[in-house]
C-alpha cells in the first residue's frame, strides 16, 4: 500500500461515520447518504492519488458527497416540494435536534431504533456508523453476505417507510431507548477490539474509539444512568489494554501475559473512577456495571498473581443471575479454574458443549484446561477446533502456536 493509499484509508476511518451522518440528516435517506459517501471516496481515491490529499480532506469529501447526493436526488425526483429543496440546498436539519446536537449520535439513535430487530440495529450501525463492509458484518454474524446485505437493505427501507426521524430522542424518551443503543455500542466496540474478520486488522482502534466517543455522548445525555456509566467504564478499562493485546508479530497476547506497564493508565484511572462512582451510588448494578467491576479487578492487579480471583468469581456469580447465558458461564469457568483448579473448571465448561460447540472461545478454553491437565492429545484436538472457528488473525496465530507447543504426543482420555 502506498503512502497516499494509507492516508486515504485513514481518512476513511476518520470521516466515514461523520460524512454518512451529515448526509443522512441533510437528505433524510440512508441509501442516498451511503451511496454518495461511497462515490465521494471513490473519486477521492482516484484524484488524491494524482494530486495528493487536499488541506482539509473532510471538507472536500463533504462537498463532493453533497454534490453527488444532490445529483441523485434531482435525477430521481426525490424532492417532494420547495421546502425540501431549500432544506437540502442550505443544509438545515429536517428534524428537531433533540437534547444534544451531534450528527453521528443522531444517526446512532436512528440505526438503533426499537422498530428494528436487534440484529438489524447492530448490522445497520456497524455499516452506517462504524463503516464496516457488508462482508465484514456478515462474518461477524456468521451469515452469508447476501443475507446480511438484504438485512441492511430491509432495515433502511423500514426506517424510510416508517418515517423514523433522524434525531436524538427528547429527554423523556431516553430511558426507554438507551438499552438498545448501549447493546449496539457494546457490539461495535467488541468488533473493534477483536475484529471478527481475518482479512481486517485484528484490532480496529477506529471502531473502539468511535464506540467510546458515542458512549461518552450518551453519558452526557443521561449522566445518572448506571448502565451508561458502566458501559463507558468497561470500554475504557478494555481499551486501556489494547496496546498490549497484540504482539509485534501480530499474535494475540492473553491477559496473563500482557505487559501491564504498557496499559494506558489514564484510561484505567478513569474507568476505575466510574466503577467507584457506581458503587458509591448504592444502586443495584446492571450487566455492564458488573462487567466493568470485573475488569476493574483485573486492571487493579499489578501482576496477574495479585488478581483477586475470589472477587472475580463472586462478580461472575452476580452476572449469571443478571444475564444467564452460556458465554457468561464460560467466562465464569475460566475464573473458577484460577480459584479451584482446571479439573473443576473443565466440568463446568463441558456442560456448555451443546450451547457453545460452534463458538471458538469455548474450544480455546477447553484446550487450555486440557493442556493444564496434561491431556495433550485432547488439547490439540480442541485447539484445532478453535482455530477452525476463529476469525481473528491474531487469535488464530496465538492458538496455532499454543497447539504446536504441545507436540504430537500426550495423554488422552
TrEMBL record:
RNA polymerase sigma factor 70 region 4 type domain: which residues? 109-159
Molecular function as annotated in GO: DNA binding; sigma factor activity
InterPro entries the record matches: DUF6596 (IPR046531), RNA_pol_sigma70_r2 (IPR007627), RNA_pol_sigma70_r4_t2 (IPR013249), RNA_pol_sigma_r2 (IPR013325), RNA_pol_sigma_r3/r4-like (IPR013324), TPR-like_helical_dom_sf (IPR011990), WH-like_DNA-bd_sf (IPR036388)
Chain ranges of the RNA polymerase sigma-70 region domain: 18-78
For whether the record's keyword set contains Transcription, the answer is: yes
Q: Name one GO biological process term.
A: DNA-templated transcription initiation
PANTHER family per UniProt: BLL6612 PROTEIN, BLL6612 PROTEIN-RELATED
Q: What is this protein called?
A: RNA polymerase, sigma subunit, ECF family
Q: Which organism is it from?
A: Nocardioides exalbidus
Amino acid at each position: 500500500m502506498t503512502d497516499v493509499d494509507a492516508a486515504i484509508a485513514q481518512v476513511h476511518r476518520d470521516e466515514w461515520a461523520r460524512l454518512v451522518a451529515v448526509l443522512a440528516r441533510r437528505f433524510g435517506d440512508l441509501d442516498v447518504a451511503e451511496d454518495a459517501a461511497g462515490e465521494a471516496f471513490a473519486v477521492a481515491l482516484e484524484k488524491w492519488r494524482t494530486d495528493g490529499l487536499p488541506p482539509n480532506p473532510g471538507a472536500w469529501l463533504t462537498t463532493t458527497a453533497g454534490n453527488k447526493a444532490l445529483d441523485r436526488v434531482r435525477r430521481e425526483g426525490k424532492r417532494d416540494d420547495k421546502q425540501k429543496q431549500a432544506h437540502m440546498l442550505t443544509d438545515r436539519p429536517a428534524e428537531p435536534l433533540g437534547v444534544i446536537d451531534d450528527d453521528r449520535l443522531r444517526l446512532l439513535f436512528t440505526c438503533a431504533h426499537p422498530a428494528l430487530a436487534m440484529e438489524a440495529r447492530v448490522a445497520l450501525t456497524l455499516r452506517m456508523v462504524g463503516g464496516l463492509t457488508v462482508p465484514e458484518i456478515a462474518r461477524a454474524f456468521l451469515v452469508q453476505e447476501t443475507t446480511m446485505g438484504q438485512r441492511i437493505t430491509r432495515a433502511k427501507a423500514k426506517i424510510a417507510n416508517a418515517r423514523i426521524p433522524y434525531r436524538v430522542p427528547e429527554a423523556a424518551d431516553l430511558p426507554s431507548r438507551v438499552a438498545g443503543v448501549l447493546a449496539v455500542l457494546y457490539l461495535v466496540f467488541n468488533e473493534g477490539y477483536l475484529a471478527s474478520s481475518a482479512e481486517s486488522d485484528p484490532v480496529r482502534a477506529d471502531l473502539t474509539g468511535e464506540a467510546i466517543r458515542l458512549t461518552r455522548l450518551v453519558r452526557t445525555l443521561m449522566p445518572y444512568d448506571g448502565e451508561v456509566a458502566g458501559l463507558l467504564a468497561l470500554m475504557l478499562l478494555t481499551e486501556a489494554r489494547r496496546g498490549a493485546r497484540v504482539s509485534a508479530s501480530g499474535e494475540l497476547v492473553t491477559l496473563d501475559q500482557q505487559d501491564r506497564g504498557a496499559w494506558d493508565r489514564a484510561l484505567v484511572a478513569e474507568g476505575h473512577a466510574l466503577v467507584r462512582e457506581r458503587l458509591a451510588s448504592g444502586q443495584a448494578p446492571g450487566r455492564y456495571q458488573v462487567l466493568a467491576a470485573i475488569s476493574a479487578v483485573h486492571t487493579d492487579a499489578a501482576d496477574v498473581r495479585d488478581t483477586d480471583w475470589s472477587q472475580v468469581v463472586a462478580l461472575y456469580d452476580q452476572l449469571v443471575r443478571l444475564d444467564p447465558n452460556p458465554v457468561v458461564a464460560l467466562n465464569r469457568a475460566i475464573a473458577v479454574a484460577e480459584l479451584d483448579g482446571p479439573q473443576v473448571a473443565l466440568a463446568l465448561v463441558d456442560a456448555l458443549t451443546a450451547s457453545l460447540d460452534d463458538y471458538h472461545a469455548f474450544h480455546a478454553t477447553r484446550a487450555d484446561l486440557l493442556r493444564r491437565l496434561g491431556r495433550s492429545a485432547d488439547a490439540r484436538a480442541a485447539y484445532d477446533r478453535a482455530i477452525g472457528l476463529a476469525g481473528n488473525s491474531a487469535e488464530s496465530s496465538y492458538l496455532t502456536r499454543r497447539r504446536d507447543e504441545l507436540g504430537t504426543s500426550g495423554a488422552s482420555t
